[in-house]
Amino acid sequence: MRAWVVGTPGPVDSGPLRPVERPVPAPGPGQVRVRVSCCGVCRTDLHLAEGDLVPRRAQVTPGHEVVGSVDAVGPGAHRFAPGERVGVAWLGRTDGSCRFCRRGDENLCTDPVFTGWDVDGGYADACLVDERFAYRLPEGLTDEQAAPLLCAGIIGYRALRCADVPPGGRLGIYGFGGSAHLTAQLALAQGLEVHVLTRGEHNRELARSLGVDSVTGAAGDSPVPLDGAILFAPAGELVPVALRSLDRGGTLAVAGIWLSDVPRLDYAAELFQERRLRSVTANTRHDGEQFLRLAARLGVRATTVAYPMDAAPDALADLAHGRFGGAAVLLN
Ligand SMILES: [Zn+2]
Ligand SMILES: [Zn+2]
C-alpha cells in the first residue's frame, strides 16, 4: 500500500514527508484495520514533520483524523463488523492501569500511544486501530466533514470546557483554524458570546461567516473583557496578550500540543485577580463521544479544503503558510 512517512524532520518547504510502499498491515489482537477514505490534516502533523515535536518513532506515518471502513478484524476484536464506518483519532491507546487512567483522566495516561506519532496514522491507504479507541461516526456527515471532528473538533471541545466560561459568558478565541472554527460553532450554539482574534484574512472571513460577535487582529486587545479564552495559535507571545484580556476570575486554556516560548508574565496585570492559565492535553474517549454527539445534534460543520492523498505535502505547506481557512483533508 501507499503511505507517507516523516523522513527527516525539517521545515515544511524542505520536504520532510516521503512516500513509501509498505505491506498492508495485519490487525493484531483487539485491532481492526481501516481502509482510509479520508484523513484530516492537523497542525500537530506539521509540528511532527517540522521536528517541533520530537519523533517517537522513525519513519512514522502521520494522520490522526482518519475516516474509513473496517476491512479486516484481528483476533478477539468484535466491536465492529467489516464494512462499518469508523473514526480513528489521536488517542490510540492508554494503559488503563496508571493512576490517571484509574481516576478517569486517561488523557493524562503515563503510557499512552498516539496515532500518527507512536503508531502509523492515516496518511496512507490503510491503518490499524485498537477497536476500543475507534469511534462510531454520526450518520448524515460525509467522510470529509467527519474527519476534522476527530481531533480539531474533540480537542476544541475539551478546550472549551477547560476555558470554563459561565452560561451566556464571553469567550475569546485566539487563532482561527481547523479547531477554532468548530469550537466557535459549538460555543455560539451554547449561547456564548464569541470574540475572535486572529491574523490572516481567510481566518477572519471564516469567523465572520459563522456569525461570531467580533473579529479583530491577533495582536490587538479583545474589545470586551473575557470570561474565558482559548489560545489555538501556537504562539507563546499571545499568552500575556490573552491573559490581559481576561476579566477577573477568567481562564485561558492553551489548546495546542506545542507552543513557542511564553514571555515573562507580569503578575499584577496578567495573573492577579484569580486569572488562570492552563493547558489542554489530549482528550478522553468520553470527550470524543460527547463531542461527536453534540456536533451532530447542534449541526457543527467543518469548512474543508480537500487534497488528494498524493498531495499531502502541499496540504501541510498550505497549512504552514496560512493559505486556506478551515481544515484540510486528504482523500483516497
Ligand atoms: Zn494510564
Ligand atoms: Zn490533531
TrEMBL record:
<dbReference type="InterPro" id="IPR002328">
    <property type="entry name" value="ADH_Zn_CS"/>
</dbReference>
<dbReference type="InterPro" id="IPR013154">
    <property type="entry name" value="ADH-like_N"/>
</dbReference>
<comment type="similarity">
    <text>Belongs to the zinc-containing alcohol dehydrogenase family.</text>
</comment>
<keyword id="KW-0560">Oxidoreductase</keyword>
<keyword id="KW-0862">Zinc</keyword>
<keyword id="KW-0479">Metal-binding</keyword>
<feature type="region of interest" description="Disordered">
    <location>
        <begin position="1"/>
        <end position="26"/>
    </location>
</feature>
<dbReference type="InterPro" id="IPR011032">
    <property type="entry name" value="GroES-like_sf"/>
</dbReference>
<dbReference type="InterPro" id="IPR014187">
    <property type="entry name" value="ADH_Zn_typ-2"/>
</dbReference>
<dbReference type="InterPro" id="IPR036291">
    <property type="entry name" value="NAD(P)-bd_dom_sf"/>
</dbReference>
<dbReference type="Pfam" id="PF00107">
    <property type="entry name" value="ADH_zinc_N"/>
</dbReference>
<keyword id="KW-0520">NAD</keyword>
<dbReference type="Pfam" id="PF08240">
    <property type="entry name" value="ADH_N"/>
</dbReference>
<dbReference type="InterPro" id="IPR013149">
    <property type="entry name" value="ADH-like_C"/>
</dbReference>
<dbReference type="InterPro" id="IPR020843">
    <property type="entry name" value="ER"/>
</dbReference>
<dbReference type="GO" id="GO:0004022">
    <property type="term" value="F:alcohol dehydrogenase (NAD+) activity"/>
</dbReference>
<feature type="domain" description="Enoyl reductase (ER)">
    <location>
        <begin position="10"/>
        <end position="330"/>
    </location>
</feature>
<protein>
    <recommendedName>
        <fullName>Probable alcohol dehydrogenase AdhA</fullName>
        <ecNumber>1.1.1.1</ecNumber>
    </recommendedName>
</protein>
<dbReference type="GO" id="GO:0008270">
    <property type="term" value="F:zinc ion binding"/>
</dbReference>
<dbReference type="GO" id="GO:0005737">
    <property type="term" value="C:cytoplasm"/>
</dbReference>
